[in-house]
Structures are given as structure tokens and as C-alpha cells.
């Protein structure tokens, strides 16, 4: 369960998102939509605890360190001296610590996650050498390793081809079936209509209620 209490995101004390009140049920998958500049990324960063709320609050019921977080691709730094395998392995750190070492069981999990996103053959590639879609698949594999109960994803399918979107959407659906709560910023309305029953739109008004509250009220 994620609960929002008159939550507003913004910068230097100036709100740029509507005020959001309500809750997302555990195991729900919600599309966060709205026109450019309505504050989707800002709201997601506020929920993730990366920027403080301008007003109101948000309860996640998990430690923010344990969040599954995927920023917009433009915000990612890929020029670091790691392989795709090591990038995926970073998803283990909440469980084993930075210096805990990777056990045989974790190696099997990393291989399985790379298989799930069809990237095993690129395990030794540097992230900067991967295409946008390949990098996104590796980042999804890292999310799988994190085993977080809450995933916040900012425009994960921007510039991604249809087969890869289908593959990554199936991972989101499997994750939801395992009870993970997902909030996903999306622009592609046909994709939202096809896969998402819950939609949180920032277009509607200056005060927004989340889908669960709307369903409870109706
Ligand atoms: N670091 C920042 N400092 C001040 N204002 C910002 C900052 N980042 C974004 N903004 C402003 O906040 C508003 C909302 O931006 P945000 O990126 O959250 O919108 P969005 O709905 O995600 O947009 P898009 O669909 O274009 O990605 C915009 O007017 C933007 O200029």
C-alpha cells in the first residue's frame, strides 16, 4: 500500500504538481499520465524521496533504500567502468551489502534475470556500448534482483521498440502478480489502455485522487 496525503511536489518551495490524495493498493499497477510539464517526474521523485515534498506527505511502508527506482533515461550516467553483469549484480546490495560478496545462489539469480530480459549474451558488455533498449533490459534485470515490493518507473518505454516493450511489460505483469506495487509514468495512451486498469492522471484538476480511492468511492 502507498498512501498520499495532500502530497505536492515542486522545487524551492514552489509546487509544480497537483495535490495528490489517496492510496495505491499493494499489488496494483498504475499508469501515471499527464501532458508534458504536469509534474509526473517531479511527483515520482517526491514519492521516491529524492526531493522533499512542497507540502503533504507520502507513506510507502518500505524503506526508501529498498525501492525499485528507474529514472528517465536522460538522467542515467552510463560511462562507468562496469559490465552489464556487474550492473545487474548491484541490485543485490540491499540483501548482501556492498562488500557481502556474491554467493553461488545469487549468481544463479543474476543469470536468471539476464535470461528473463534476453541479455545473457551481453553480460560482459559495458553499459555505454549498449543500445537504449538493451540498456533498459539490463536495468529491468537489476530491478528483478532488488526484489523490491514497490517499483517506481519514469517513462521506461521511451524510444523502445515494440518487441522490447512487450517483453518488459510481461515482466511488469509478472511482478504485479507477485504482489509488487507499480507506478509507471507513461505517455503512450494505447499502451496504457491495453495494459493498465488503474490510471492516475495529473491532467484532471489541481487536486487528484488516486485510483484506489476513486474505486472505493464509486
Ligand atoms: N530541477 C527543477 N527545478 C525547477 N523546476 C523544475 C525542475 N525540474 C522540473 N521542473 C519544472 O517542473 C515542471 C514539471 O516538470 P516534470 O519534469 O515533473 O513534468 P513531466 O510531467 O514529467 O514532464 P514530461 O512529460 O515533459 O517529462 C516543469 O515546469 C519543469 O520546468
TrEMBL record:
<keyword id="KW-0813">Transport</keyword>
<dbReference type="InterPro" id="IPR027417">
    <property type="entry name" value="P-loop_NTPase"/>
</dbReference>
<protein>
    <submittedName>
        <fullName>ABC transporter ATP-binding protein</fullName>
    </submittedName>
</protein>
<dbReference type="InterPro" id="IPR017871">
    <property type="entry name" value="ABC_transporter-like_CS"/>
</dbReference>
<dbReference type="GO" id="GO:0016887">
    <property type="term" value="F:ATP hydrolysis activity"/>
</dbReference>
<dbReference type="GO" id="GO:0005524">
    <property type="term" value="F:ATP binding"/>
</dbReference>
<dbReference type="InterPro" id="IPR050153">
    <property type="entry name" value="Metal_Ion_Import_ABC"/>
</dbReference>
<keyword id="KW-0067">ATP-binding</keyword>
<keyword id="KW-0547">Nucleotide-binding</keyword>
<feature type="domain" description="ABC transporter">
    <location>
        <begin position="2"/>
        <end position="216"/>
    </location>
</feature>
<dbReference type="InterPro" id="IPR003593">
    <property type="entry name" value="AAA+_ATPase"/>
</dbReference>
<dbReference type="Pfam" id="PF00005">
    <property type="entry name" value="ABC_tran"/>
</dbReference>
<comment type="similarity">
    <text>Belongs to the ABC transporter superfamily. Drug exporter-2 (TC 3.A.1.117) family.</text>
</comment>
<dbReference type="InterPro" id="IPR003439">
    <property type="entry name" value="ABC_transporter-like_ATP-bd"/>
</dbReference>
Amino acid at each position: 500500500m502507498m498512501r498520499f496525503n495532500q502530497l505536492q511536489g515542486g522545487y524551492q518551495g514552489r509546487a509544480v504538481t497537483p495535490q495528490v490524495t489517496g492510496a495505491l493498493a499493494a499489488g496494483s499497477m498504475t499508469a501515471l499520465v499527464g501532458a508534458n510539464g504536469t509534474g509526473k517526474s517531479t511527483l515520482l521523485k517526491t514519492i521516491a524521496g529524492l526531493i522533499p515534498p512542497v507540502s503533504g506527505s507520502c507513506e510507502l511502508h518500505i524503506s526508501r533504500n529498498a525501492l525499485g527506482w528507474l529514472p528517465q533515461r536522460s538522467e542515467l550516467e552510463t560511462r562507468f567502468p562496469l559490465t552489464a553483469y556487474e550492473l545487474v549484480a548491484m541490485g543485490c546490495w540491499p540483501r548482501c551489502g556492498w562488500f557481502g560478496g556474491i554467493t553461488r545462489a545469487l549468481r544463479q539469480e543474476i543469470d536468471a534475470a539476464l535470461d528473463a530480459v534476453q541479455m545473457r549474451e551481453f553480460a560482459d558488455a559495458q553499459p555505454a556500448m549498449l543500445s537504449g533498449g538493451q540498456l533498459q533490459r539490463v536495468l529491468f534485470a537489476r530491478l528483478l534482483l532488488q526484489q523490491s515490493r514497490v517499483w517506481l518507473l519514469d517513462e521506461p518505454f521511451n524510444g523502445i521498440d515494440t518487441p522490447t516493450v512487450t517483453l518488459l511489460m510481461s515482466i511488469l505483469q509478472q511482478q504485479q502478480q507477485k504482489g509488487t506495487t507499480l507506478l509507471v509514468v507513461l505517455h503512450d495512451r494505447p499502451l496504457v489502455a491495453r495494459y493498465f486498469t488503474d490510471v492516475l492522471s495529473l491532467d484532471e484538476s489541481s487536486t487528484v485522487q488516486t485510483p484506489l480511492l476513486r474505486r472505493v468511492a464509486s
